[in-house]
User: Fold Putative zinc-finger from Nonomuraea maritima.
Amino acid sequence: MKRFTCDQLVELLTAYYDDAIDPTTRDAVRTHLSCCADCRGYETQFLATVRALGDRPVEPPPAAMRTRLLAAFRERRAGRLADS
Assistant:
């Protein structure tokens, strides 16, 4: 079975919900989400954002913003791991 890092899962979440990934990858995403509380939290935020935006067209964030968001996610996760 494929395994993903949290960063890889973040990259795949949109394709996962668009049903645009193969069954093996879909199963691996499900497995990662079942084992990773941080990614489940990210998924919850992702779905809340999708619901809030509805069908409105949205431009993807600039690369710099995406980089900052991923860095913040990593820092938050690293803080949780340090607290354990």
Q: What stands out?
A: The CA atoms of residues 9 and 60 lie 18 Å apart. Residues 6-83 form one domain.
